[in-house]
Amino acid sequence: MIPARLGLLACLALATTPASADATGVETLGWLTGCWSRTDLDAGSGEQWMAPGGGTMLGMSRTVQDGRTVEYEFVVIRPAPDGTLVYHAHPSGQASAEFRLVRTAEHEVIFENVAHDFPQRIGYRLDPDGTLKAWIEGRRNGTTRRVSLPMRRAPCATVTAPPARSAS
Question: Which residue range(s) make up the domain with 105?
Answer without folding.
Answer: 20-160
